[in-house]
Amino acid sequence: MSEGYPTDWEQVREAVNNIGDTEELPRVRPSGQEIYPAGLKDRDWWVNWVRAVRPGEMLNHQPASDAVPTKQPIEPYNNGTARPARWNEAIPDEEHPRTSFDTVVDWNDARIGHHLHGPDRIVSNQVGIGVILEPTAESDDRPITLLDWDDVRRPETEEIHPVCAWALDKLDGYAEISQSGEGIHQFVYGDVPGSLRQFLRHIDTEPFVGDDRPMIEMYSGTRLTAMTGRHVEGCGDDIVDGQDLINALCWRFGNGTNNASEYPTDPFASERGDGDREGDDQPEQVPSRETVAEKLAEFTTYEGPSPDEWDVPESDSVRYQAVLRGGN
Predict the structure, then answer these.
(1) Contacts from 319-327 at CB under 8 Å and sequence distance 24+?
(2) Is pTM, for the whole model, over 0.70?
(3) In the chain, which segments carry CATH 3.30.2250?
(4) pLDDT band at residue 246 using 50, 70 and 90 as cut-offs
């Protein structure tokens, strides 16, 4: 990465403390190339999307004043419209809007109302492309996790928050600049520890750009992400292993806050000492996911019949993703 990026955690902390005083912060520039990583292009996770409000947020055929538009997938390649599609992991594969990269690219930048028509609740002028990440349990491929950095980049100066700069410097894998120019997307091979498949934390106590505190959001499945292809200069062009980085971020910020909760679930709660708090010195050795799993198994017992004796009808649509292991 660029000269001036913090390479260890002490440098990160010093840079964060001096954000208001320093003359020079790390910068993230677009490479000038439109790149999408082959590790994602090879998977049929792609959709087109628009911004739209929910049906209940319409008033007299217009979005209500307090309506909040969200990214919603569409499938013009299947129905020729911009009508938002249903999507969740309970939908059968043949009904899910996900498809190939080559299919959605044909509809990228299509104009709403000219090339495609849809309901009044659509607020976008053009169609975008994105991916819906598939949970690990649903795939035999290596799991992919999105590291979604929000409010970490100043578009006018290209300055980047030191924590995000540190994460970019740790890997030589793919990264892109978000639509707003204020965020960064990293895609890595790996899983968010724990059962939630997501991790959302503030990475600073003060805003860096705009009014919101910068955040790291990590998702290992069931997440619609807008793709821009605005490749970051100095980063690789494909996905690389990032499990160590995921674990390190969960360890560093596990006791932090997010926009929804002052005390969100900490994936490494059982591994921390009384002094391990956000901002305190942290050990260099981050607990492995296997260590956490062993701890859970140690304190969990199951006294029912073995799984092969469970009476689960073949028609049952519930997908069992985990089995508690312990005593027989």
Answers:
(1) 319/89, 319/137, 319/138, 321/135, 321/137, 322/137, 322/195, 324/300, 325/297, 325/300, 326/297, 326/300, 326/301, 326/302, 327/301, 327/302, 327/303
(2) yes
(3) 9-34+138-253
(4) very high
β-strand pairing of 184-189 with 240-241: parallel
pLDDT surpasses 90 at 228: yes
Least confident of 7-16, 29-38, 86-95: 7-16
- Residue pLDDT, tens place only, 31-43: 999 999 999 999 9
CA distances from 3 to 7, 10, 319 (A): 10, 17, 48
Task: Give Cβ neighbours of residue 282 (< 8 Å, ≥ 6 apart).
Answer: 9, 251, 252, 276
Q: Which two tokens stand for residue 314?
A: 């073949």
Above pLDDT 90, what percent of the chain? 56
Pick the CATH number of 9-34+138-253 from 1.10.3210, 3.30.2250, 1.10.287, 3.90.1720: 3.30.2250
